[in-house]
Design brief:
alpha+beta, 19% helix, elongated
């Protein structure tokens, strides 16, 4: 059995027997220049479609139906596979009876030989359902037991458009296709009693199809920080685009954005799992998704934005112009830097450089800071959480990292070690001059150039000991220190990371 709903001005849920969820609703679509035209938006897990209504003449070559409209009682024995073997439409909320819209071949309803497309179900096991809404009728049928007595009456005027819908969708013996795929409906007298010869058949025809795998949705005018009022655009990997989709109000816009974003995110997580099967544990993907990078334009900061595909994989932060579509594409990334030598900083609302929201900086040793924006706060929190997870995994894999420094005017090596903590190695004597655990660090300060002061607390005396160093690669050292300290805190307190999970 299937549960279906009729298209409304707001998104509604349609559930079919293979658990595929489809949402439909009326929107207006434009190319950003011309006047918007009405279309129906249909959203499934993997595809977003924009459809227009098309009329077609009625089909008189239909299978025979009952010769009269007398009330009949038909017994149906439910099957373990296929259930009752029928689909229904209608309901009190649509001012329609509960109509049998399809009977599946060689299944329970078909085997009776006494049920027809266009039959209205009046009673189920003697219980009147003529005033039930669609979902109520479905629940009654689902819970009616193994032997179901249906009281039905045939509506001849309803039969042509229901059969036409089935013919257009094609015959499938296993009944895995939804009768709503082409969205057939009947336009005619509102009392649904008009003669079939005057019935006009219409259907929804696909105009635009956008695959949602690694697609992205945006409310901004492409390349700018200008937000469209009550409108959005979805762009797919295959170059397809919905154009500008306009909604009636902010509430409907919010619904569509959530539904579409959730589907894209679900597909992205699935693709991550598929990729990670081919990578060793130390190189697994922690995050991937679309961001928008601010690009300088004629010395005017952040006036242009371009989409970039950001990934956190193993110890690497990677930026692609387009998503990697196979394992080999991961080797072709033009911009890669180490997560343990980088910093992510979420931008406060008061610090935004323009009208773009949900922004963050990635600072990397030896490179200019990069400014990014995402569409939602949820996505920003997801990136922040994934970043911390990647830092911890990268540091544990790295184990230790050494930097050439000067201490007391002598060359030395400062090692950050996962087990030892801070350790200074004298290059001349080939011995460690001092060593402190990460937990002993009480603070640090630097001049932004090369000088660094580390303040440690002695375990026994509790006094603060300051060590002054010089490092030519100070920024890399500071970022790496931050990475080791973050990972150490997370290892002591697992809640540190879980608290950052949106």
């Amino acid at each position: 059995m299937r549960i279906t709903g009729r298209t409304m001005s707001t998104p509604i849920l349609e559930e079919v027997d293979n658990n595929v969820k489809v949402r439909c609703g009326m929107v207006k679509v434009s190319d950003g220049k011309t006047r918007p035209t009405p279309m129906r938006l249909q959203l499934s897990m993997e595809i977003l479609k924009l459809q227009k209504e098309e009329s077609t003449p009625p089909n008189h070559n239909v299978r025979p139906t009952p010769s009269d409209s007398r009330v009949r009682i038909v017994g149906v024995t439910r099957q373990k596979v296929g259930g009752l073997g029928l689909s229904i439409k209608g309901g009190a909320e649509h001012k329609l009876p509960i109509l049998i819209s399809r009977i599946f071949k060689e299944q329970a309803a078909d085997q009776t030989g006494q049920l027809f497309v266009g039959d209205a179900i009046i009673k189920v096991n003697g219980e009147l359902i003529t005033h039930c809404q669609h979902d109520e009728a479905v629940n009654i049928l689902r819970n009616a037991g193994d032997i179901v007595m249906l009281t039905v009456k045939h509506y001849r005027a309803a039969t042509p458009f229901l059969q036409k819908a089935n013919q257009e969708e094609g015959e499938l013996d296993n009944g895995c296709m939804s009768e709503e795929n082409d969205g057939w409906k009947c336009n005619g007298s509102s009392d649904h009693s008009l003669d079939s010869r005057t019935t006009t058949l219409t259907r929804w025809v696909d105009i635009i199809t956008v695959p949602l795998m690694m697609a992205y949705v945006t409310r901004y005018i492409f390349g700018t920080d200008k937000l469209r009022p009550n409108a959005f655009e979805v762009r797919g990997l295959n170059g397809s685009s919905t154009g500008v989709v306009h909604c009636d109000d902010a509430a409907i816009l919010s619904q569509w954005l959530k539904y579409i974003t959730d589907n894209i995110m679900g597909l992205t997580h699935l693709q991550m799992k598929l990729y990670n099967r081919n990578f060793p544990a130390a190189e697994r993907i922690e995050y991937m998704g679309w961001v928008n990078e601010g690009i300088l334009n004629n010395n005017q900061p952040w006036q242009n934005y371009r989409p970039r595909f950001l990934t956190l994989k193993g110890t690497d932060v990677m930026l692609f112009d387009s998503p990697p579509l196979n394992v080999g594409d991961w080797k072709e990334c033009g911009l890669v830097f180490k997560v343990y030598q980088s910093m992510l900083r979420v931008i406060k609302d008061s610090e935004n450089v323009d009208e773009r929201q949900h922004c963050f900086l990635i600072q990397t040793s030896g490179q200019e800071s990069r400014y990014f924006s995402v569409e939602t706060r949820q996505e920003l929190l997801r990136i922040e959480s994934s970043w911390h997870n990647s830092v911890c995994a990268a540091v544990i894999k790295l184990g230790s990292k050494s930097f050439n420094v000067s201490f007391g005017g002598k060359l030395a090596g400062l090692t950050l070690d996962w087990n030892m903590g801070f350790a200074l190695f004298d290059n001349i004597s080939r011995q460690f001059l001092w060593q402190y655990k990460f937990s002993q660090l009480r603070g640090s300060s630097d001049d932004g150039k090369s000088k660094l002061k580390l303040h440690f607390q002695d375990v026994e005396t509790k006094s603060i000991e300051t060590k002054e160093l010089e490092c030519s690669n100070l920024q890399a050292l500071l970022f790496c220190m931050h990475a080791f300290l973050t990972a150490k805190v997370a290892s002591v307190d697992p809640a540190f990371l879980s608290s950052r999970t949106p």
